[in-house]
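Quick one, T. Sequence first:
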Amino acid sequence: MQTPKESTKLSILNSAKEEFLEVGFDKASMRKIAKKANVSTSNIYNYFTNKEGILEQLVQSIISSIESGLNHISSDDHVEKRLNFSYETLKNRFNVILFFVDENRDILDLLLFHSNGSVFSNFLEDFTERITQLNIRQINYYKEHKGMQSLVTHDFFIRNLVSFFLNIFVEMIKNKKSKEEILEMEDNFLKFMHYGSKAILLDVNES
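Structure tokens:
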């Protein structure tokens, strides 16, 4: 059972999320958040230092989940296994991401499209860059340890591949596409990603 303080804090968070999604972080006002939460503006400061603190609380769980995922795909074990990923493995991993996005679309919408003026203003660009550099490190590992010297590690090429993959989830949120709509097209998308990558690796191994 929630205490009155916990209930008030949750009300402030929900009201802030609604306000951020309606007008964006930079244009949201503490006064309007307080009005929606049915509390005084001064009372908000008993729970949060400022507007940024509210946003950080809203996205904290999602950011932690994303960091956990990045740590997993950065592991040596994952790098080794990735070379032998089957189509079904890729599909299963895609669906894990898809379900995560679907379950957290409000907060991801907030991070991607309504966080301008906050520390998360460049969330997508920063995330894309991190995934790009992670892929470059993995490719360099394959070149050094697997003899795949002709694999391309140019930032521009890798970043565009990463952006292409991430963009299906970005567009899903932006255009309010349902999980079911994405599932209808996932085979075409994933076959393009999987067999295109396999073709590159095959060419490298045969060269």
